[in-house]
Amino acid sequence: MKKYFTFFIGMLFCGSLFCQAQKTNTPVSNQLVVIANSSGPAISKDIYGHFSEHLGTCIYGGIWVGPDSKIPNTNGIRNDVLFALREIKVPNLRWPGGCFADTYHWRDGIGPQSQRASIINTHWGGVTEDNSFGTHEFMKLTELLGCDAYINGNVGSGTVREMSEWVEYLTSGSESPMTKIRKENGRENPWPVKYWAIGNENWGCGGKMTDEFYTNIMRQFSTYLKDYPGNQLYRVACGPYGDGYQWTETLMKDPDTREMFQGLSIHYYTVVDGWDYKGSATKFDEREWFETFRLNYDIDNIIKGHKAIMDRYDPAKTKGLVVDEWGNWFQVEPGTNPGFLYQQNSLRDAITAAIHLNIFNQHADRVKVANLAQIVNVLQSVILTKDDKMVLTPTYHVFRMFRVHQEAQLLKTDLKCEDYSFGGKKIPAISASASIDKDGKIHISLANLNPNKEIVINCPVVGSAANTVTGEILTAKEMSAFNSFENPELVKPVKFNGYKLRDNVLTVTMPAKSVVVLEIK
Fold it and tell me: Is the pTM of this model over 0.85?
């Protein structure tokens, strides 16, 4: 009862300030009430996941250089990229696509590399790939990263047998033709594989299916994806893009269908001014800055819409929502292959990451997995490479700052903040979430979306004795600032001192266009 009483008092405290402001006709103060002793669900570490597709130089040149490369590597995997990804605690990695997944045939990527069949990447640039990075190389990468494998199976052009045998090859410890081949290829013991997607965007590049047709196909494929001793698959059914709620309804309404999967995917990209334009990643004005964040916020309503359907059929929340493709999608950098989707990454992308991760945290009861698109050299990546050089993007730094939320308990919060307005439209100027970890440390992540205004926000911490505060901040002089190979540390986190703590009320002065993460002990 005590924690509920404390929560009630906290809400009264918040409400009284609001009413007082209304009575005096003064603006509502920016305030984030944090209820420290009323924790919610655990924030799944897997919402901080990443996505690696055979697209452009994400795999070849970005992650994989081969064991004979002069670039320092471990079994062909770039050491600089490997060490950087360990630092942000990548929890899971999705592979081999994306659209590429529904053209990928896994047997082409096993065995002696000199004998592997080549493939034309018909989706992304029409380039020929030699399949030197295949199943064994990917699983080695996940081992080196210490992360879970998220494999996307081929439904669009593959067969039930092909996918079933891939699961057996990877995860079975019994004697069988598949495990015999695996052992001949140098792997005696099976690998643990946690996540398995049954197709990708099967409403589009994965086969242009209807929701009813895909549902039946999914049931068939899922039937033959076996849980071998020591491994249990988390099967992810292909869901819709954005607010395609009918697709979710079709998959969720039948109890027999619901038994065939554990997670339901959705995809959502932020595309300023539509797919034909997209805009530049680094040359933009305040209108494009504002529109990016306005569209970022749409993911909150999209998740709420899918949650409402899922809650109706699955009130116990046994099925997870999997946002396995998200991020900003801009025009490719001038002079690069249009099919490679290579774009720079600015402070705007960092704030986009903060908005999304805060929203995913807030929906921890249903959102169990999310994957930024993509990990290296493609779309909103955390790392850029060029030959032997590597750059950590502003988005990378947000993932490192926010890693403190992984597996922490979501804290109840109540945010009241001013609007950021532009062109007759408005959005909340502040994005926030809070959690408490197993050691009792509270973390608050904040983003100030306004590029022109410093914002002071009061954070009463109810139900905990706050003694010490530390923090980091990510910002830059220009809203289009980015890290280049010539200037790789223009945008990076520094120690943050813009706060005061008095009587369990934290007052934070956030500079314009900034991301701040605070730790309270």
Answer: yes
